[in-house]
């Protein structure tokens, strides 16, 4: 049986972007169902699964069925010694994500995708928002598309993780793409990324990690990036998920950006994330 023969029960969250998948137990899914999830992920870009019973081991098993897992993060270690693949976002340890970003774009090969599991949720708040970078690109005016198609941007992990690498990890991070991360050298990526599976173009800059555009003045870089950020995060390009216990979210890191609301005061929020190994971005 192939993925084309499996029909997932989807509740679309927008005309072209995001869906809730009903009636699928991720820990018991067949190979064909997992193939269908993988194909649907590319199409809908972010998927949500309610009422799951995954624990940390089940989350890792799921990830390995979908792709090749990376370390938890290039700089931040795993949740414990037995689970080096799991990145714990714990609000009690500054584990926030309240800046629009695409995961780990400051490495030469950012993750293909991410799988996020709710572990501890605040009584209210803590929603996560995802933006469709391909829909945002398509809705730019033609002259602006022509401009950004030709641009390259620098992504710099030192903006968020340089201090952590130096002070918390003693200058020795995780093994990423076969090498121990000892420094975060700025990396260049195209401003517009071509999706390797669909050929669609998407905006591939983000406020979290993009520092500037190559070959233009500082003022021009700021203006272009501000335009793209504002356009990317327009409400018509965004879906929002209100977390419940047992929820799992899965997204295509090559065609989305996301933002976690930090609106729950002193309450604790803990999420566990794993990432799938990706490829080097290429432009038009």
In short:
The chain has 284 residues and is of the alpha+beta class.
How would you describe this protein?
- With 284 residues, the chain is of the alpha+beta class.
- It has one domain: Double-stranded beta-helix (4-Layer Sandwich), CATH 3.60.130.
- It is 23% helix and 25% strand.
- It has helices at 31-44, 56-66, 133-138, 142-148, 158-168, 218-232, and strands spanning 9-12, 19-22, 46-49, 87-90, 113-120, 128-132, 152-155, 175-176, 179-180, 187-190, 192-194, 201-203, 210-213, 238-241, 248-252, 256-260, 270-276.
- Strands 1-2-3-15-5-17-4 form a seven-stranded mixed β-sheet, covered by helices on one side. Strands 14-6-16 form a three-stranded antiparallel β-sheet.
- Helix 1 (31-44) links the parallel strand 2 (19-22) and strand 3 (46-49).
- It is globular.
- 40% of the residues are buried.
Offer a few descriptive terms.
Double-stranded beta-helix; alpha+beta; 23% helix; 6 helices; seven-stranded mixed β-sheet; 284 residues; three-stranded antiparallel β-sheet
The separation of the N and C termini measures: 35 Å
Strand order of the largest sheet: 1-2-3-15-5-17-4
Classify the secondary structure makeup into a structural class.
alpha+beta
Main sheet attributes: strand count, strand direction, barrel closure: 7 strands, mixed
- CATH-defined superfamily: Clavaminate synthase-like
* Overall average pLDDT: 95
Total beta strand runs: 17
Can you tell me the residue ranges where pLDDT is under 50 for at least 5 consecutive residues?
none
Content of β-strand: 25-35%
| SSE pattern | EEHEHEEEHHEHEEEEEEHEEEE
In total, the number of domains comes to: 1
Helix content: 10-25%
